[in-house]
Amino acid sequence: MPKVHNFSAGPGILPQEAIDNSIAALQNFAGTNLSLIEVSHRGKEFEAVLDEAVATVKELFNVPEGYSVLFLQGGASMQFCMIPYNLLDEGQTAAYVNTGVWAKKAIKEAKLFGNVNVIASSEDQNFNYIPKGWSVPSDAAYLHITSNNTIYGTQYQELPSANIPVICDMSSDIFSRPVDVSKFDMIYAGAQKNMGPAGVTLVIVKDSILGKVKRAIPSMLDYRIHIEGGSMYNTPPVFPIYVSLQTLKWVKSNGGVVAMQKRNQEKADLLYGEIDRNPLFKGTAATEDRSVMNVTFVLNDDSLNDEFMALAKQRNLSGLKGHRSVGGFRASIYNALSIESVQALVDAMQEFERMKSGAQA
Amino acid sequence: MPKVHNFSAGPGILPQEAIDNSIAALQNFAGTNLSLIEVSHRGKEFEAVLDEAVATVKELFNVPEGYSVLFLQGGASMQFCMIPYNLLDEGQTAAYVNTGVWAKKAIKEAKLFGNVNVIASSEDQNFNYIPKGWSVPSDAAYLHITSNNTIYGTQYQELPSANIPVICDMSSDIFSRPVDVSKFDMIYAGAQKNMGPAGVTLVIVKDSILGKVKRAIPSMLDYRIHIEGGSMYNTPPVFPIYVSLQTLKWVKSNGGVVAMQKRNQEKADLLYGEIDRNPLFKGTAATEDRSVMNVTFVLNDDSLNDEFMALAKQRNLSGLKGHRSVGGFRASIYNALSIESVQALVDAMQEFERMKSGAQA
Predict the structure, then answer these.
(1) Quick one: pLDDT at residue A346?
(2) What is the architecture of the domain spanning A16-253?
(3) What's the complex ipTM?
(4) For residue A339, with 0-12 CB atoms within 10 Å meaning exposed, 13-18 middle and 19 or more buried, which class applies?
(5) Which backbone phi and psi does A317 adopt, to 5 degrees?
(6) Which of B23, B26, B36, B73 is most worth mutating to test chain A (most A CB atoms within 10 A of its CB)?
(7) Is B250 in the active site?
(8) CB atoms A238 and B14 under 8 Å
(9) Mind listing the pLDDT tens digit of every residue in chain B (361 residues)?
């Protein structure tokens, strides 16, 4: 089959090795002669998978003592609700930084539980930058930020810290770079961008922040229940966890998050370099806030969009259409995407430049 | 590889055809030359999968107009919380029938939202029967029942109806027999027993019962939001939905729920027949309430348990250990299990009888 260069924003590209290992487990899981998806999650074979997944997260991110690693269902969207349910008492205020649609959704849910102080926002410029120079109210219950904004191609180059609990949605850049987990009280990520397939959500939570709100929390929404059950309070999403483990193992065997960061920076430099050089294109995100995961760019003449997309398709470049709220193009260059795929996109951009200058000549 | 007879209670056996088709989609999904788990859920290929899954549920169960079919995350356990969140206002009372651990968990969550009237229970005899002769208070917000009780091997032979909204947890017998959906206001099922792999939950809900409670509902817990989003309010669990569709198509191509019921009854008759005939064994559930999905039985002399389990293992009979609260053995004989596998278990029980009578002779 022809090689397809997969720039999908999410669910996104996974390491071929992770997919192949997962297929093997569907054929015969851990020597059981049964498929991974038709055995008990309480069997020793799957318990070993879950244990290894937790251990690999802890190893990749140097998770300190006192934190729990959970694999839950519902995506980041469920976390938008669980976070205030567990951490924001009625009458308390939480501080949120609004850097896009996903941050806004998190804000909306938090308002059902307490007060929300949006301490900074980049909505005035369609979220094409990361707000700076804001300060964190010391009496807020927590600060919530979104490390990378998939739609707009912005990313905190340096993650902020604060003297109150800091919670970070890392759905679209988890394991793309080293993170000092000790500076966060909670990190979470829907898996389907940089960590695995859709259907599982990683939560890394500092145990000591839990159990402080007065309200009763439904069992499935209570982090303490999931910690106590070791992510097995009820049947976990077996296959998504298995694929995530294969992806985490691939990260580890390819040098961990330090190597991922280097590799991602090389890919980003190559692509942003072409965007800045090629007179037909321009980037949409503020230069200093450019994401190394999602590269957003447009044609200066957007009447050429269809023509460039046709060329991309012809060259097996897939998933490049920009989000409707930004337009143009978005190349998601997650961990598993090779630099060869980025080069193929750069080649197409250069070919397009030649086609257009030829047409003008 | 040797044939393994898979009696796992859940996640349970799936049709080999469904597994094979799912592996094919992981290799190359719908001609995209990409894996099913690394493409956008908003692409036309996956939207077609979701549409077909909804249509197949409607077809298999003759779902009337006015009902929505949803594929959600979180398992039945999340439904235990979502149901009262959406349907039980503060001060209102809901009626629950307590037929086991899962019903109890549903009751526990409902109590966080309103009053619960447990109108019948079989807890007095470790849930080994289905309570009968109960009446439904006409002023209750809804009646909640559990159609099949996996742990205890009990099942409503005839599903009750009522003049108030009826909600049924069918996690362990969905699509095992025809159901008159019009008699229910909501049916739900965690997929991982009779419908698919872990990680997706089917909800069939009558639209007109929604939107009546006064409380604010977080987006991810609000059925109306999921209906409006067509199960795509956020990224759905792509792979679990795909496998579920393959399983539903297998049910359809094998005669639908009418044929499943006939086939399941034949398997159950064969196995219960042996349990009743074989002097070493006895069933644990009340005869009139025996489940055709989960067959629970014990050895009269439970000091022989390990020996029978060793014979079962030698004959590649897998997943037969009973739940700790019942003990003995449990054969889960879901739709996908063949009568040949049941026969293999019956053969082992007869062989065990010969071994024991030989030992005594």
Answers:
(1) 98
(2) 3-Layer(aba) Sandwich (3.40)
(3) 0.98
(4) middle
(5) -95, 115
(6) B73
(7) no
(8) no
(9) 568 999 999 999 999 999 999 999 999 999 999 999 999 999 999 999 999 999 999 999 999 999 999 999 999 999 999 999 999 999 999 999 999 999 999 999 999 999 999 999 999 999 999 999 999 999 999 999 999 999 999 999 999 999 999 999 999 999 999 999 999 999 999 999 999 999 999 999 999 999 999 999 999 999 999 999 999 999 999 999 999 999 999 999 999 999 999 999 999 999 999 999 999 999 999 999 999 999 999 999 999 999 999 999 999 999 999 999 999 999 999 999 999 999 999 999 999 999 999 766 5
Contacts of A330 in chain B (CB under 8 A): none
Test mutation, A3, A33, A37, chain B, max B CBs within 10 A: A37
Separation in Å, CA B58 to CA A278, A361, B48, B206, B284: 52, 60, 15, 13, 35
d(CA B17, CA B206): 32
Tokens at residue B132, please? Answer: 């009968």
Tokens at A11, concatenated: 């669910």
User: A97-131: per-residue pLDDT in tens?
Assistant: 999 999 999 999 999 999 999 999 999 999 999 99
Asked if A191 and A240 count as a contact pair (C-beta separation under 8 A), the reply is: yes
- Burial class of residue B361 in the structure, from the number of CB atoms within 10 Å of its CB (0-12 exposed, 13-18 middle, 19+ buried): exposed
* Cβ burial, residue B315 (10 Å; 0-12/13-18/19+): middle
Q: How far is CA B171 from CA B58, B175, B193, B200, B201, in A?
A: 17, 10, 7, 11, 9
Question: Can you tell me which residue has the tokens 């290799």?
Answer: B27
Give the number of other Cβ atoms within 10 Å of residue B14's Cβ: 29
Which positions of chain A have pLDDT values less than 70? Answer: 1-2, 359-361
One CATH from 3.90.1150.10, 2.30.30.240, 3.30.497.10, 2.40.10.350 for A255-360: 3.90.1150.10
Please give the full DSSP string across B286-308, using - where no structure is assigned. -GGGB-SSEEEEEESSGGGHHHH
Q: Please identify which residue in the block is written with the tokens 């439970």.
A: B302
Chain B CB within 8 Å of residue A132 CB: no
In terms of pTM, does the model score above 0.90?
yes
The pLDDT of residue B185 is: 98
B68, β-bridge pairs = B205
Q: For the packed helices A238-253 and A44-60, what is the interaxial angle rounded to 10 degrees?
A: 40
Coil/strand/helix, residue A70: strand
Whole-number Å distance between alpha carbons of A275 and A283: 6
Task: Please give the Cα distance from B318 to B347 (Å, whole number).
Answer: 14
Window 83-102 of B: residues touching A by CB (8 A cutoff) are 85
The full set of domain ranges for chain A reads 16-253, 255-360
Rounded to the nearest angstrom, the minimum Cα separation between B361 and chain A is 37
- CA atoms in the 13 A half-sphere facing the CB of B179: 30
Structure tokens at B156: 């409503």
